[in-house]
Amino acid sequence: MLKKFFLVVCGSFVGVILALIFFTLASLLISFAIFGSMASSMGGAKIEKNSIMYVKLEGSLNERESGGNTSLMSLMQNEGGGQSLSTLVKGLKIAKNDDKIKGIYLDCRGMAGGMSSLYELREAIKDFKTSKKFVYAFGDEGIMQSDYYLASAADSIFVNPEGMVDVHGLASATPYMKKLLDKVGVEMQVVRVGTFKSAVEPYMLEQMSDANREQQEHYLGSLWDVISNDIAKSRGIDSTKFVALTDSVMATMSTKDLKANKLVDHICYRSEFEDKLRKLTEVEMKDDLKLVTAEDLVASNDDPLGTGKAIVAVLYADGEIFSGTNSGGGMPGMNSSGGIYSEDMAEVIRGLRYNDDVKGLVLRVNSPGGSAFGSEEIWKALEDFKASGKPLAVSMSDYAASGGYYISSGAQRIFAEPLTITGSIGIFGMIPNASNLFNNTLGVKFEEVNTNPNAIAGAYFKPLTDQQRNALQQMVNRGYDTFTGRCAQGRKVSQDSIKVIGEGRVWDAVTAKQIGLVDEFGGLEAAIKWVAKQAKIKDGDYSVCDYPNVEMSLLDMLNSMGYVKVENDLQKRMGIFYNSYEQLQAIMGRDRVLCLMEPIEINF
């Protein structure tokens, strides 16, 4: 018995020692990789004569870099990772003015990105073309719709003889979960303001309301008009004919028919396409093409937007808005999944306000909203920033809706792209009632002892009383009155006029500009230039700095890798049920009063 005890103790001790050795080696490996990456970045990539900017349209298109450790994390997780819109746009601008770059090679492999982000990237490609350098796109197995939208801006589109082009239009999918909730014994107790505030519909209805269908049909139609007209114009195809081609199930067309209908220009294999690039760039057939990435170009350029001491700050508000602070570490103002924590974000804004080198601020918003209180906190910090006399502009990305519009509304100038989704000025409260689940399904009964009748109001195991529901409705009404008041103040219009276009309705940016929610079409660069002009800074006399800081500590990176790994495994196991699970999990961790857009998925 004693021998067995010592064997167990020794085995445990050896296990701990081995674990410590493994962790130490892993930490050293990561550290060396990080320092190697930093050294490479600091040194910059050498751009040779007759180089081609290579844009691999693959993975996800994100707002900005996730830090210097992103590629390493992606490698360790065996994933392709994502690309930064910010880096790609900067790289295209540098390539346009670099005589060593002869053109662009768009490699269409399937990039997933928001429509407004893709629009902004496409506009950057179009701007590059003004340099008279070539832009060629190639698709092997197939060119998906999002890739084709970008490729349509190229001089020529090349496709494999056995390849395809798939352009099919837009569609939205909203999961309605009331029946599921009924089966498990959970009732969503909802109060809201706004006929179109449909974020709560999936939990209280079995099918889409007429109002929600109306708003989705409107903004999807407007978005598709922009996309289809852009493609048709670039390809020299009549817009009516292009819509007909789209409706004909384009993915089934042969490459010969694609060419005959002006959807592609050339049919060839990748090797033949790359031989053409060799001739264009005077590279020997036996040699490799001189390909450089956006990351290479940015690393080789110290400061393409200016070297002066004056700073135009770009603050990224990316993801759902939460109240409070991110106690788990990571980037200030951001959580591990990209959300926004109001206290942390407000602290970053305060720092920019009192930084004498910062002459103005662009708030880059890509958010469906979230906590009403958190949105108010960020709004107040931005108002304080404006009180310093520094100019403030908002650059809207894919979404700036509900709470995302709340924090945008006070800006002196709001920029958006035609494919941005915004508005959704509405508010709701939602508290789950799982009494049926506990009492009847699980057989769990809660016994209460209270000093006051509302001491345990809002508990998940009992329904709200009429008094409590009325109190929640009053809270939501006050929140909506505050929200619309903030918008009216920022847009310099009456509160009644905001309420007319509010009601929780989601708008596309084209319509939003018509009704006064947006000032001007343009991307991040347009907003930066506007702020610089308002701050009376000349071109070239300022630098652009991104906030919050994206660098992560070793511990944060390890925690993030573990979190992402678990989430990815769970997503693979749950399949189509993962989105519903994620939404239910989110409900339990959110504030009770929300400015949040509905969780729709647009198939692009």
Give the averaged pLDDT, no decimals. 86
State the domain count.
2
State the fourth-level CATH superfamily of the largest domain.
Answer: 2-enoyl-CoA Hydratase, Chain A, domain 1
Q: Could you say what the CATH architecture of the largest domain is?
A: Alpha-Beta Complex
Notes on the structure:
With 604 residues, this protein is α/β, with parallel strands linked by helices. It has two domains: 45-168 and 249-300, Alpha-Beta Complex (2-enoyl-CoA Hydratase, Chain A, domain 1), CATH 3.90.226.10; 310-599, 2-enoyl-CoA Hydratase, Chain A, domain 1. It contains 22 helices and 23 strands. The strands form five sheets. Strands 10, 13, 15, 16, 17, 19, 20 and 21 form an eight-stranded mixed sheet that branches. Strands 1, 2, 3, 4, 5, 8 and 9 form a seven-stranded parallel sheet that branches. Strands 7-18-22-14 form a four-stranded antiparallel sheet, sandwiched between helices. Helix 15 links the parallel strand 15 and strand 16 (413-416). It starts with a helix and ends with a strand.
What's the short story on this structure?
With 604 residues, this protein is of the alpha/beta class.
Quick tags:
22 helices, disordered N terminus, single chain, 23 strands, 604 residues, 2-enoyl-CoA Hydratase, Chain A, domain 1, alpha/beta, seven-stranded parallel β-sheet, eight-stranded mixed β-sheet, 2 domains, 20% strand, globular
Blueprint (SSEs and pairs):
Elements: H1 2-43, E1 51-62, H2 70-76, E2 82-84, H3 85-97, E3 101-112, H4 115-129, E4 134-139, H5 145-151, E5 156-159, E6 171-173, H6 178-184, E7 187-193, H7 201-204, H8 210-235, H9 239-247, H10 255-260, E8 266-267, H11 270-280, E9 291-292, H12 294-300, E10 310-318, E11 321-322, E12 340-341, H13 342-353, E13 358-367, E14 369-371, H14 372-387, E15 392-401, H15 403-406, E16 413-416, E17 421-423, E18 427-433, H16 435-441, H17 466-491, H18 495-501, E19 506-508, H19 509-514, E20 520-521, H20 524-534, E21 542-547, H21 554-574, H22 578-589, E22 593-596, E23 601-603
Parallel strand pairs: 1-2, 1-3, 1-9, 3-4, 4-5, 5-8, 10-13, 10-21, 11-12, 13-15, 15-16, 15-17, 16-20
Antiparallel strand pairs: 6-23, 7-18, 14-22, 17-19, 18-22
Helix pairs in contact: 3-4, 3-12, 4-5, 13-14, 17-18
